[in-house]
Amino acid sequence: MKKHNVLAHSAVLAACVVCLLFGGCGSPKPFTLVVLPDTQNYADTRLGHADRRWGNGDLRDSFYQQTDWIRENRARLNIQMVAHVGDIVQTDYRGEWEIANQAFQTLDGEVPYILCLGNHDMGYEPHPTGTGKSARSRETSFNEYFGPTRFERHRWYGGHMGTGNENSYCLFKAGGMKFLIISLEFKPRDEVLAWASEIVSQYRDRRCIVLTHSYLRGNERIAKDNYAVQGNTGHQMWEKFVREHENIFMVLCGHTNVGRLTSQARHGNQVHQVLSDYQGWHNGGDGYLRIMTFVPAEDRIEVRTFSPVLGEYERTDQNEFVLPYRMRGSRAWRAVNSHAVSR
């Protein structure tokens, strides 16, 4: 009888701990992932392309307002991670990287974040009459500002491939679940996909989000492009990597406006592939970013698009929607509800 009481008290105590950690018995607390779409025009000081197009001068303040807003709203929205989909800068120019560096210093030590490289972040080749060409090579100044040493002191930083941070991953827990976000270079090469597969397999107990720049065009995976650098298109990434892993449930990308696609992978798992890029909108995007709120109790991810610059939401179907995603099978959910049933 005493043994039974001890076990019962232990179960109650464990359930209470879970309740405290995850926001109330029976319903793990909602949490948010913020997605920063292409910020290239906010850092465009070398060419002044954005100024010539919209006539509003230097737009760096939009970049700063984005990260200021994220920091100010971390507690209110329970922001667990920020993911930048690439094209951080316009022409891989030091002055542009200084702007990006200042923007993200606002988040250092406050809000975890992960970035990926876009075509504008590497291999820029000037042209006397135009904006030049990007991704002529994989040379980049990215690591001088966002190399591994900037992140290695943080517990959520998982690691990187090789000596640079072009391909990296981070780990976090939220809503009673464990997550892995893996960031892959623009047009990832086969050896990068092989490395990524090893990481995703190593952390097969974690729900995985893939972050890469060029993947979707509208609602279809990109099958062909004209960039000089060699690597895999979005279609090839799906075939060689994404569809092969049961724990991958989402791909986040930029590069070409907005869109989304949900596909069934080889193991039967649904993969939401979500595109956001506002660099062609007024003033290079007017600071619009994506707010992805995970609601475990309702098995849904609520996606909204908001501009800290304008203080407005973009409420079109492509920018405000819900993604179904099963979360109630998580360990924390089972622990809480097992106790509720036993009572």
Spatial extent as radius of gyration: 21 Å
Q: How far is it from the N-terminal to the C-terminal residue, by CA?
A: 17 Å
The CATH topology of the largest domain is Purple Acid Phosphatase, chain A, domain 2
Sheet with the most strands, sense and barrel status:
7 strands, mixed
CATH architecture of the largest domain: 4-Layer Sandwich
Weakly predicted, low-confidence segments: 14-24, 330-343
Number of helices, counting only DSSP H or I runs of 4 residues or more: 10
Average pLDDT, all residues: 90
User: Which structural class should the secondary elements be placed in?
Assistant: alpha/beta
What is the helical fraction, as a range of percent?
25-40%
* H/E series: HEHHHEHEHHEEEHEEEHEEEEEEEH
Give structural notes.
The chain has 343 residues and is an alpha/beta fold. It folds into two domains: 1-27 and 328-343; 29-326, Purple Acid Phosphatase, chain A, domain 2, CATH 3.60.21.10. Helix content is 28%, strand content 24%. It is built from ten helices and 16 strands. Strands 1, 2, 3, 13, 14, 15 and 16 form a seven-stranded mixed beta sheet that branches. Strands 4-5-6-7-10-12-11 form a seven-stranded mixed beta sheet, with helices on one face. Strand 5 and strand 6 (177-183) form a beta hairpin. Helix 1 crosses helix 10 and helix 3 runs parallel beside helix 5. The longest helix is centred in the N-terminal third of the chain and has 21 residues, at 2-22. The model is unreliable at 14-24 and 330-343 (pLDDT under 50).
